[in-house]
Amino acid sequence: MDPADLSKAKVMSGVGFASKALGIATLITVSGFGLVVIGISSLLDVHTPSQFGQKVKSFFGDKYRISKGDSPTYESLTELFEAVSKDKEKKEPQAAQSQ
């Protein structure tokens, strides 16, 4: 390649290449997700999120429902770490006794 040909060559910069790749990947991802949502909604014959919730509940019942209010709440991360370390200390002696 001659130096004169280099000026004519279309060289894409790293930022331009990354931007183009990000744009294409975003387009593919959003399109794919949209198709999945449309496919599931047409398969289940639902049009709103509440209808979807009712349909899923009718299929699975409360088997996969996340329970609310049974777990303790913590005011800070420190309280959570203290509770976890206390639980771990309680379990360690039991594990040593069972061996």
Secondary structure topology:
Blueprint: H1 3-8, H2 14-44, H3 49-60, H4 77-98
Describe the structure.
The chain is mainly alpha-helical. Helices cover 72% and strands 0% of the residues. The chain has four helices and no strands. The termini are far apart.
Features:
4 helices, flat, 99 residues, mainly alpha, single chain
Q: Identify the overall geometry.
A: flat
How much of the sequence lies in strands comes to under 5%
N-C termini distance: 75 Å
Distinct helical segment count:
4
Spans of at least 5 consecutive residues with low confidence? none
Number of strands: 0
Radius of gyration: 28 Å
Query: Helix amount, in percent?
Result: over 70%
Order of helical and strand elements: HHHH
What's the rounded overall pLDDT mean? Answer: 82
Query: What's the story with the biggest beta sheet?
Result: none
Q: Would you tell me the structural class of the helices and strands?
A: mainly alpha
Give a quick precis of the structure.
The protein is an all-alpha fold.
